[in-house]
Amino acid sequence: MSARLPGGGLLIDRAKPLYITFNGRKLRAAEGDTLASALLANGQTLMGRSFKYHRPRGVVASGAEEPNALLTIGSGDTLEPNQRATTTEVFDGLEARSQNHWPSLEYDVGAVNAKLSRFLPAGFYYKTFLYPRAAWKHVFEPVIRKSAGLGPAPDRDARDPDTYEHFYVYTDVLVIGGGMAGLAAAEAAGAAGARVLLIEQAAHWGGRALVDDMTIDGQSGPDWVAGKLSALRAMENVELRNRTMGAGVYDHGYVLANERLTDHAPGADGPRHRLWRIRAGRIITATGAIERPLSFAGNDMPGVMLASAVRDYVALYGVSPGDRTVVVTNNDDAYQTALALVGAGLNVPAILDARAAPAGPLIDAARSAGIRVETGKAVASVNGKTHVQAVEVCDQAGEGTALETIPCDALAMSGGWSPVVHLWSHCGGKLAWDADNAMFAPDPDLPPTGADGQGFALAAGAAAGALMAGDALASGAEQGAAAAMALGHEPRDPGKVAAVEAPAQGPMAPVWLMPQGADIAHRSKAFLDFQNDVKVSDVQLAAREGFESVEHAKRYTTLGMATDQGKLSNINGLAILSDALGQPIPQTGTTTFRPPYTPISLGVIGGEARGPLFKPTRKTPIDGWLDANGAVWEPVADWRRPYALRRAGESTADAVTREILNTRRNVGLLDASTLGKILVKGPDAARFLDLVYTNMMSSLKPGRCRYGLMCTENGFLFDDGVVARLSEDSFLCHTTSGGSDRVHVWMEEWLQTEWWDLAVFTANLTEQYAQIAVVGPKAREVLERLGGMDVSREVLPFMGFAEGTLGGIAARVHRISFSGELSFEIAVPAGQGLAFWLACLEAGADLGIQPYGTEALHVMRAEKGFIMIGDETDGTVTPHDLNLGWAVSKKKADFIGKRAMERADLVRPDRKQLVGLETLEPRTVLPDGAHAVEGARLANGMANMIGHVTSTHFSPTLGRSIAMALIKGGAGRMGEVLEFPVDKGVTIRARVVDPVFLDKDGERQNV
Amino acid sequence: MSEAVSALGGAAYDGAVRVEDAGLRGMITLRGDLCDAALRAAVRDVTGLDIPGQRETRLDAERGLVWMAPDEMLILVPHAEAEERVSALRTALGDAHVLCANVSDARAVIRLSGAGAREVLAKGAPVDLSPAAFGPGMVRRTRLGQVAAAFWMTGPETFEVVCFRSVGGFVFDWLVAASAPGSLPGHF
Fold first, then answer.
1. Which of A181, A912, A990, B15 fits a disulfide with A919 by CB distance 3.0 to 4.6 angstroms?
2. pLDDT tens, A177-225?
3. What fold, for A3-113?
4. Residue A197 Cα, gap to closest chain B Cα (Å)
5. Does A756 contact B at CB distance below 8 Å?
6. Cβ contacts of A575-584, under 8 Å, gap ≥ 24
């Protein structure tokens, strides 16, 4: 049984007890505990069931690399599954639950999967996809889904009460990792005068200096760390952030880091997580190294832990993993664990060293401490049901014949160390194989490079492959100074290197399988990837089945694809694969390291962008009034516009009908402020607009308006609107509501990159004006009542505009119409937009003035056969397709899209062309997008589709349904009846007609 | 005759910093050759200020010049004066190739004040806002949250943030969220 020791525990405060619950059971913990250390302190070594086989699992590691101890934390709104117990700091009242078991952690029905493990081999999913086909849907998927998986998702009604944010930071040197090397690097870079940001994922600083046997400059590791921290905090140009994990390294020194602010203090003010978006001149990855497990049968049994984790729990948290701990290793480092356990008064029955003849001070020390050291020995298997009870010892050179059974409660394993190369690798840093330590380490000659071709990252300490304390510290100081120097700073005291005393270590021996000749029964229980339940036998099977590339083998076996991204399993898996393929490990290579280093919350990725701030909504100056007067909102690009303004008790459809009829009979008021308004000015403005629009703008007279079309260079229509010539050298170009930014950018791009010789300036004035359309037979009367300008037919004819004041407000009045009615569009300063709107409503009250929304606008323009960008156009439609050839100049030498319009495909007579449609049954409204079909079915069984409906409405004005459609060869089909199959056995028939349904001669607007 | 109203109607919030509607501001967009002596003289005559350099501002109590682009200046004047100043500039510049437009109603101006103002902005703007890199006399046209914005400092702890009028409410709400009590990173 694991338990709290009477003494020790650097990080905990025994005087501050607090209480947590695990599966409803109340447990005592101490301030400073992680959830893992608290559970171990309470004898709780069984922490969950494995993903696939539901094997009992306990904690393996003491840090971010933990694959097993994933727990669900919190409940209700704050429920969060799959949290690593090793990095979860306890707080009073913390609720934790184990995962992936039923009915309980101790008695799990799903464990039957383990008995079926030979039916769940590598590539199981792929194989079941293939044969038998029906089995996947009806047998495998329901069963597997139920039994596999991690923690539960939060309830669908749960809402995260916490806040999250981003934070942009620029620094000269970013040091990732606050262990020995990171602290030394930050100090060296800071002393040279660079701005330094030092981040550490854990709550505490110092890394292995807190635990491992060393003195630095005559001080103990913890004392040195404390001294270094106060020195760094005293430096103005150095900032330290703990609980901040370097998540990803991206192009040009961009780094994402995740700061966890209130996970350990729920309810505190401020955001829960903060995503630091950092631009660094140089990045130092001082991310340490991770100890590797050994692959032997039963290495996933609760009680089997990494050797370094065992001594972490003893030293940092005062927790014993068990009374009797066997140590199994291929290196000297794990001897420190045996010594630490003995030092804490615990029993180490044996050290099983796979090496034939290890020698060195640590081995001597272990022997002097009376610990039995067995060389050339291995673990054949682990005995126990839900916890280690004994280990079977065998020869490493053999096949697993047990020579001896050693009873124990814990097994500390060490297969050597792997530098944490993730951040180095994210943006292209390359790795080199270090054969002495059997590990990949950053290749300093091939770092990730920035815009200048220089490396922007430097690896330091164990992360650079300097595993020994003295080397790590020297490497940190050296890289810190190098980073500062690369940015033009002068390092201070470059020769000063801390004196580190730590026991020397002899060579390790690579051990990828234990024992080396383990038979299939043993290999099938030797786990590589604990979280995804991938065993040595699975990787070997994948190799036999032809998965030679490491990337393929990874996906086929799911090795390294769990939430821990294979931090413990990668190298062991590569080694097994390489062995199966008969090639050296460097030839196999690694899989790709991808951010984030450990999972970060979706909340922090979103930052402030949630709830009302999820996406900006553009609002016009009239928005508030519309909202208070029954607006049913619809998004139009980033704007919100009223679809209709509903009166009390009215349906939306009824409101639309009322608005249309009232506008056609009396007068309507539309908030058209969203229309884009781009000022184009300069001696070449007319020439420029002739190039941008398909029709001629240079011939437009000042004071007049003209409808214009814009095409892409492919000849396809992308925006339309009315151009008003303000003066000889200035034009105001109206765009669609969604198009103002796009058109402005389009104009600037052509001016800046192609026609830089044209003397033209543009300005986007969209938001300077509120634009209000006063529409209907009584529109003029409303304006006359406002007074201030002559808006008579003679002075202000159709397609003219005038500037003046209306109702005391400066106004530009355009006589343009998108409804076919007498219509004025009036631009006033946005700050007086609402005042003008209210003035119109007041002036027109007894004339029956009513505001109308976008649906009434849509129907009225459809009645007139006016096209709408985005309805009748989809990026593949030319002006000619829409019968707008009259707006394409034949006289102009050039304009954007002219050349393209001459291409064979764009002049084909059977292109889809705009037609009007009248359903034979006038009450029936065609569905939007309905396809017209004709003739026999195609060879592939599909109907022969000849076009589709682009706009479709019931016209209250005409008392019948109307539609527009793009139909193959439509221009030649007038009078034809087309068929639109809209559902099984339901076909709507409609006659092809002129798309101008109402007032073909334009008499209504010409008054 | 109705009075103009600002997009935010005087809204204010006190959190980790103060966020408030800075009210109406006369703004004039001037595009032209900023190196041209006649243009520089005309701007000086009309505003009493010299054209600032790249990413710089010149501000006095009522007026200001804000560099927007190599060929674009934003002129700040009292709101009521804007139309008259536009005319004055147009007259002074005569036939020169310039664009001069009153954009006084196109934007919202939000004042951000308090010791943490830099940090609030740094939550949404990819700009080095450390005191060493950004201070009074500078301007950045950038992004705040998800929308385009520009800001400059009017004092050691005071920023003015401008954005388009239609997203004024969004930016205000964003700044309020970013100014929640206890949320300052404490970095600068």
1. A990
2. 999 999 999 999 999 999 999 999 999 999 999 999 999 999 999 999 9
3. Ubiquitin-like (UB roll) (3.10.20)
4. 10
5. no
6. A575/A438, A575/A510, A575/A512, A576/A295, A576/A512, A576/A513, A576/A528, A576/A536, A576/A539, A576/A540, A577/A539, A577/A542, A577/A543, A577/A550, A577/A553, A579/A512, A579/A513, A580/A539, A580/A540, A580/A543, A580/A544, A581/A543, A581/A548, A584/A433
**How much is the average pLDDT of A862-885?**
96
- Eight-class DSSP state of A903: S
Residues B159, B92 share a domain: no
Set of chain A residues whose Cβ sits within 8 Å of the Cβ of B178 = 165, 608
pLDDT of residue A190: 97
Partners of B166 on chain A (C-beta within 8 Å) are 618-620, 639, 767
Nearest CB neighbour to A830, from listed B105, B146, B181:
B105
Q: Please say if the pLDDT value at position A978 is more than 90.
A: yes
Amino acid at residue number A777: P
Cβ neighbours of B2 in A, within 8 Å: 808-809, 832, 835-836, 839
Phi then psi for B51, rounded to 5 degrees? -65, 125
Residue B43, token pair as written in the block: 């701007």
Q: How confident is the model at residue A489 (pLDDT cuts 50, 70, 90)?
A: very high
- Chain A hits for B82, CB-CB cut-off 8 Å, are none
Residue to mutate among A261, A627, A768, A841, with most B CBs inside 10 A, is A768
Cross-strand partners of A414: A329
Rounded Cα gap, residues A131 and A138, in angstroms? 13
pTM of the model: 0.94
Beta pairing, strands A823-829 & A809-814: antiparallel
Q: Region A317-342: what's the mean pLDDT?
A: 98
Looking at the structure, do residues B33 and B19 belong to the same domain, yes or no?
A: no
For A800, which DSSP code? Answer: B
Write out pLDDT tens, residues A270-324: 999 999 999 999 999 999 999 999 999 999 999 999 999 999 999 999 999 999 9
Helix (H, G, I), strand (E, B) or coil at A221: helix
Give residue A985's Cα distance to chain centre: 44
Tell me, yes or no, whether B130 and B161 share the same domain.
Answer: yes
For residue B104, what are its two tokens?
């006084």
**CB within 8 Å: A170 and B181:** no
Least Cα separation, residue B104 to chain A (angstroms):
7
DSSP state of A752: I
What's the pLDDT tens digit per position in A36-61?
999 999 999 999 988 888 899 999 99
State whether residue A603 is helix, strand or coil: helix
Nearest Cβ partner of A835 from B2, B6, B32? Answer: B2
Query: In sequence order, what are the residues at sequence separation of 6 or more whose Cβ sits closer than 8 angstroms to the Cβ of residue A979?
Result: A932, A933, A934, A987, A988, A989
Task: Classify domain A908-993 at the CATH class level.
Answer: mainly beta
Backbone φ and ψ of A684, nearest 5°: -100, 15
Of A613, A621, A768, the CB nearest to B145: A613
Dihedral, CA of residue A353, residue A356, residue A357 and residue A362, to nearest 10: -10
What does the alpha-carbon distance between residue A505 and residue A508 come to, in Å, rounded to a whole number?
9
Q: Is the link from the previous residue into A596 a cis peptide, with omega within 30 of 0?
A: yes
CB A447 within 8 A of CB A424: yes
Rounded Cα distance between A105 and A853, Å, is 60
Which of B3, B125, B166 comes nearest A618 by C-beta?
Answer: B166
* CA separation for the pair B8, B176 (Å, rounded): 13
Closest CA to A328 of A221, A239, A444, A408: A408
With a pLDDT cut of 90, the percent of chain A lying above it is 91
- Domains of chain B: total: 2
Q: Tell me the CA distances in angstroms from A458 to A425, A663, A707, A816, one per residue in order.
A: 11, 70, 60, 65
